[in-house]
Amino acid sequence: MAGKSAATPSTYSPSPAPKTKRPIFQDVDWVRPDGRGFHQCRPAFLKTGAVNAASGSAYAEFGNTKVIVSVFGPRESKKAMAYSGTGRLNCNVSYTTFAMPIRGQGSDHKGYSSMLHKALEGAIIVESFPKTTVDVFALVLESGGSDLPVVISCASLALADAGIMMYDLVASVSVSCLGKNLVIDPILEEESYQDGSLLITCMPSRNEVTQLTVNGEWSTPRVHEAMQICLEACSKLAKIIRSCLKETASAPKD
Amino acid sequence: MTSHSQPSVLWQRRSTRRYNPFLGFFSDYHLGLFVGLSLFYSLEVVLGNKTLKKMVSANVSGDLSSEMEVDAFRRLFPLRYHERFLLDSIRPDARPLGRARDTSLALGAVASADGSALAKIGCTTMLAAVKMEVMTPPKESPDEGSIAIEFYMPPICSPLVRPGRPAEEAPVVSKQLSDTILSSGMINLKELSLVSGKAAWMAYLDIYCLDADGSLFDAALLAAVAAFSHLRIPVVSLNEEGRVVVVSEENEEGKSEKEPVNKGKRKLTLSSLPFSLTCILHKNYILADPTAEEESIMETLVTVVLDSSGQLVSLYKPGGPVLAYASAVQDCIALTRQRVKELKSILNEAISDMEVD
């Protein structure tokens, strides 16, 4: 075949190399690339039942961030696993090769699988599926920034769709610190220039936080401010997730 | 945060799914343990007297006990369950034997790629995307680009695939796809050349299976062809170091001295697009576009690929217990010929929809 030589030649992306820090983010007053306010989230689209082969699934689209989460089980644990009276949760997050602007960058997110696991384990009633495993698999189709919070929120919707018992729905939102401003639900470009980031995953009806990660430089009052903004957005997001579930349940079957 | 009712092109159709709380539960346990031997026999007696129509109506009426019986019968004797439908020339999803499932196509599903498409055949969903990178062409063919095709089955698509343990079908479909696309002559590799001997395009085509419900190759090929139809090659120029760089809009005003290398060559001319149909051969029946369940029960598959002018591109029959006689193969090709017409109009509709937007 003429198209494919034995050894694939090395290739490079023609996209221009990232420039140094854009000065605009240093100012107090600037407009976000997509025209949103600093404390305004992207419009969220959520839908259950994206993958028919799974016990439960959901698709989430926040701006350009597009994610599918499938839930399988409760099913038999792997043979190698030791006996466990409570259920197990197994999470995996992967990226498509074309999710990032440059091909193949998605493999930089190895840590997301364990982050997803930690964000969800506090909310799931593992005693309700003893001796078995629930698998939560996520695929990021396109990365548009704030990928992890979108994956976590989408996973909680997929778990609910699969009928896995939870204490409450889980919603997750992140905030980036850019110069003197806090921007919520940052896009990829904003994330690449950020000085620090904060991510909160919480169960809004119970007022409990399952995960809080803080990266970069933060002063105490700023952390407080960022947490307030995040928690507010989380409770709004949980309402959207809940209404999406209600919509599915009230729609005529078939 | 606001709710958004209009998704991008990616998610328009909700797949229909009958919700049965027991289904997922039973599938991963040993059903035999639950049902027990006595029930096992009584089921057979009861179902033996029922006509086909009653079986179907029981499924719809929602009478839980009879629905459970039909479901149990379907799981215990899948072949007999299907054959009873075949006797009446119909399939459990109410399709005639030769009809493919509803098919939809959306172009431009992923903005981070240069060309992309989402194809859905029944529940089987494929997302294909093309990303263009630059390479130095090999000495043997200095004025030709190249295409690298890869098919993935991530763990989200099926309960049988788990992370770290790739699906068996994935490399098979991958090879089949790259053989078909490269040998069909759809793409002229000379069009992918930028500077003869120095630089040429490498088109990475990656196809992800998002939901696996049979006929994976057909859906993957449709998504791949659609992604190439949607492809817009970025405008590039050579910089001082001899590297190929995208001409961005803001750069264009400032540095107009740099002439783009590939002006006016943003679209590939695609000739003779390949389309395919997979059929199951079972006894004397030919079932077009099988679901995953049908594929798991009746194992003889025949995949026919024709190009848009009706020429045979490839025919693939990977063994199986049923031998394909000439007449059966001809029937498969005739079914594919009909299907190609459908697929062509679906693709053209998707392309014109995109151009309106």
Automatic annotation (TrEMBL), chain A:
GO terms for cellular component: cytoplasmic exosome (RNase complex); nuclear exosome (RNase complex); nucleolus. Gene3D superfamilies: GHMP Kinase, N-terminal domain. GO terms for biological process: nuclear mRNA surveillance; poly(A)-dependent snoRNA 3'-end processing; rRNA catabolic process; rRNA processing; seed germination; U4 snRNA 3'-end processing. Its main location: cytoplasm. It is found in: Cytoplasm; Nucleus. SUPFAM superfamilies: Ribonuclease PH domain 2-like, Ribosomal protein S5 domain 2-like. Keywords: Cytoplasm, Exosome, Nucleus, RNA-binding, rRNA processing. Residues 40-164, 168-229 form the Exoribonuclease phosphorolytic domain. InterPro entries: ExoRNase_PH_dom1, ExoRNase_PH_dom2, ExoRNase_PH_dom2_sf, PNPase/RNase_PH_dom_sf, Ribosomal_Su5_D2-typ_SF, RNase_PH. The keyword Kinase does not apply. It holds the Pfam family RNase_PH. Residues 1-24 are annotated as: Disordered. GO terms for molecular function: 3'-5' exonuclease activity; RNA binding. Residues 1-14 have a biased composition (Low complexity). Transmembrane segments: none annotated. Belongs to the RNase PH family. This is Exosome complex component RRP41-like. The lineage of its organism: Eukaryota, Viridiplantae, Streptophyta, Embryophyta, Tracheophyta.
Automatic annotation (TrEMBL), chain B:
Belongs to the RNase PH family. The keyword Membrane applies. Keywords: Cytoplasm, Exosome, Membrane, Nucleus, RNA-binding, rRNA processing, Transmembrane, Transmembrane helix. It comes from Vitis vinifera. Pfam families: RNase_PH, RNase_PH_C. The chain crosses the membrane at residues 29-47. Residues 100-234, 273-322 form the Exoribonuclease phosphorolytic domain. It is found in: Cytoplasm; Nucleus, Nucleolus. This is Ribosomal RNA-processing protein 43. The keyword RNA-binding applies. Gene3D superfamilies: GHMP Kinase, N-terminal domain (3.30.230.70). InterPro entries: ExoRNase_PH_dom1 (IPR001247), ExoRNase_PH_dom2 (IPR015847), ExoRNase_PH_dom2_sf (IPR036345), Exosome_comp_Rrp42_subfam (IPR050590), PNPase/RNase_PH_dom_sf (IPR027408), Ribosomal_Su5_D2-typ_SF (IPR020568), Rrp43 (IPR033196).
